[in-house]
Design goal:
With 473 residues, the chain is of the alpha/beta class. It folds into 2 domains: 191 residues, Rossmann fold, CATH 3.40.50; 231 residues, 2-Layer Sandwich (Nucleotidyltransferase, domain 5). 29% of the residues lie in helices and 19% in strands. The chain is built from 11 helices and 17 strands. The strands form 3 sheets. The chain has a 9-stranded mixed sheet, with helices on both faces. Helix 3 packs antiparallel against helix 4, helix 4 packs parallel to helix 6 and helix 8 packs parallel to helix 9.
Amino acid sequence: MKLEHINEPRLRFATGEHICPRKGIATYGVFDRAMGTRRTDVMVGAVGTATCIEALERWMSRCGGEISAPENAKQPNLRVAFPGFSVGHGFDAKLVFGQDLARTLKKSEVDEIIAIGDRRTRLTKAIDLYYEHIRFLAQNRQVDVVVCVMPDALHKVISTDEPSPIEERLDASVEVAPELNFRRALKAKAMHLGKPLQLVRAVSLESNRKGQQDDATKAWNFCTALYYKAGPRVPWKLQSDDRRPSSCAVGIAFYRSRDRQVLNTSLAQIFDELGNGLILRGTPIDMARDDRVPHLSAKQAYDLLAAALNEYRVALRNYPARIVVHKSSNFSPDEMEGLTQAATDLRIDAVDLMTVMDSKLRLFREGNYPPYRGTRIEVDDQRHLLYTRGSVWYYQTYTGLYIPQPIELRIVRSEQSPSFIAREVLGLSKMNWNNTQFDGKYPVTLGCARKVGEIMKYLGDADAPQIRYGFYM
């Protein structure tokens, strides 16, 4: 058994590099700042009660200026001051919001929904109410993103319990709860309008509220998500080695229909060198009676990868020289055949196939803290453990609440070294623009694919899914 520590992958910003998104944006500016077609105004629409709209306006006004880090913070690299969402500073943009971009919900309408006894009827009415106003903004106002603010009383009766961090697993995307989920259903219903949504609780907009993140951290996460969703925008990208040929990463996952009766459907998520996501929906698949794990047929694997790579070619006007495919279950012979044949037909030089799954193995480090993020353990030539969550040297702490699990990398096929593969996965764990804390557990190809599946299951066969990941965040 071999052990090594992989240094934290660096990120590129407008004028420099850093390992931390917050420090990088504050010091060097967002990566896409120099793009000629970039607009500095981020037009924000909003839906909520009068009280919610006022709270959102106050919060966005506060985000326009600097927000200090908590006093006497024990981890100054973790609690970073927010530079302000304004022109001339980190984001070099401004949030534009006013009453003409807001749609106010009547308190009486909200109260009527809260009083409905049947849960499914209550959620359906709430979804329809918000959708009506989102549709108006999308069709009649110049907005880039719509913030839906939920009053606390409404949130309590429409929220669905999500898995706790200790229960979250990559293979959870295979099993889908039959319950109607407000957030997922609303995003799916409004998807055709072409405006990404940001859902937020009104209580989260209150400053310095006990039991919540500090205001600077909230501003970092809120503003970065809005900035990315209002895209196409690129807050940061991974540092690339210009000596290496171009490559892209694809994640293949599965999700079950809401009634759990329809055959599984596959989806792929592809990320180019700028970190741009592409969402594709595959065809229904057959489950083998002797295998509870869903698999693609050779033709389905071929068609899915060919479609994804064609979109890559359209965007970048060329095919990548290398492609790496991440999957949360083992590859079947048919899947390997279809994926490799698609790459061969498109004259792609290298194809790497990688299974990324949760591991039950643990390492114990002397002292009170878990192993460092970036620790790789070689079990054998094909099996490797990687700590993507763990103690972070830059933060000088472990940020989680539970004992961290490493992920297992099973190298099915690769022309690269295990160290390179692990470093690539570690880098992809930092490409989540919904959170500026960089110690995410899963590579974006799979960690976000699970979230995509949660919303994709609410789309009908005739509904065209958006290809930008910002619609699923």
